[in-house]
Amino acid sequence: xxxxxxxxxxxxxxxxxxxxxxxxxxxxxxxxxxxxxxxxxxxxxxxxxxxxxxxxxxxxxxxxxxxxxxxxxxxxxxxxxxxxxxxxxxxxxxxxxxxxxxxxxxxxxxxxxxxxxxxxxxxxxxxxxxxxxxxxxxxxxxxxxxxxxxxxxxxxxxxxxxxx
Length: 164
Prior knowledge:
Blueprint: H1 5-11, H2 16-23, H3 52-64, E1 67-71, E2 77-82, E3 87-93, E4 99-105, H4 107-113, E5 134-136, H5 140-155
Antiparallel strand pairs: 1-2, 2-3, 3-4, 4-5
């Protein structure tokens, strides 16, 4: 039963391009000349040209331990690296331009491990993070240098020091 009600039900109201393709030659049915890129119902992400430098940087980050946390439609990507149970590094890499490096320390959970608390003791909702994110070029050496600066600042913290 070609072109009957059974065929129409199978195709359904889904895509005017498909309907035009199957029924376009029948009298009384409009012909649609849609290709995949012309279909108004298909949302397309912006195409991103293959860039060997970007792909190489992504692979270098994976070698150090970063994992892709999010990739947005505009081509920007966010990577994370859990340094330990409490410290997480974040690298936000736009489609073009420099990246933003930041970190977060689950300080509520960390202090809870030592029998200490911050404020009303909501350890799962208390994070320490820098006031300003660091701008870094998408280069692994620059990212590692930023990580080393963070760890050096933590190494210098001594809450029992008489000088503070």
